[in-house]
Amino acid sequence: MAIKSREEEKFKALLKTRRLKYTVDRKAIYREVMRLSGHFNADSLYERFKNQGSRIGRDTVYRTLPLLLESGVIQKSAGLSKREFFERTSAKGHHDHLVCVRCGKIIEFKCPEIETFQAKVFSEYLFQPICHDHRLFGICRSCR
Amino acid sequence: MAIKSREEEKFKALLKTRRLKYTVDRKAIYREVMRLSGHFNADSLYERFKNQGSRIGRDTVYRTLPLLLESGVIQKSAGLSKREFFERTSAKGHHDHLVCVRCGKIIEFKCPEIETFQAKVFSEYLFQPICHDHRLFGICRSCR
DNA sequence: TTGAATGCAAAACCTTTGCAAGCTC
DNA sequence: GAGCTTGCAAAGGTTTTGCATTCAA
Asked: Does domain B1-91 have CATH number 1.20.1050.10?
């Protein structure tokens, strides 16, 4: 619960910085995202609203996800399709993905050392970090 | 020239593994890619052929790039659009990208330590490495 | 009150695909 | 000759956009 609120503050803070509003729809999208533990995309999230009888539009979802991404509440996930996948950052903590290009299997990995060096790169170039996309592609053992 | 041939061998080797053919078109695409030092995408490469009066089709380019990618001759590059960008691996050696989400500026960085840990992840999960996509998104100093 | 957000529908976009004809090996 | 490759054209599928209306601060 503590984490949940802190996440919400991050989202609100981003909106404030951008002089954007914390509307009913954005709140609903934020809340729905917090209920998800797996990966999702704009469309699957929209479908959830539709199934619940909510009138939140697909476009609103498409427009809100980049804001959640930038605020750090969600992060990019992985998949073989061109589609963009996301997942809640706090669900399992931050991690990256290893993708088998043959069977599409996706493995989550955590590598704190990589995170450390990433942070160094950001600071070396005087960038304020927002997020990153790190996917390793290869062929898994069973596909070889 | 030595490097050039070695690259070509890598490409040929991949084709052989997949029982694919080293056709005239694939050779032409390989050669054209070797002439490029900056980043490109399927379409811009196709345009180059068109401007040269070559009859190589857009589709062939689209179908060949994944093969060059898998053989390691090219790697993914970065951009803000959904479009896929590539660049020759040997042009500047392997590197990754730092992208400013405000102005779109792209900075290339090299971080050998990250590469080392990536290799560890691949071997830990028994994956045969093919390539990776590593982009750091943030806000550059002048945009803040 | 003012600027932002939303829904609708349409557009835009890049990429992929099926198929018949032509090449490679 | 068998199977892969290519060009054509069309489809595909996701994401974006313009605009009028509604809403938040």
From this structure: no
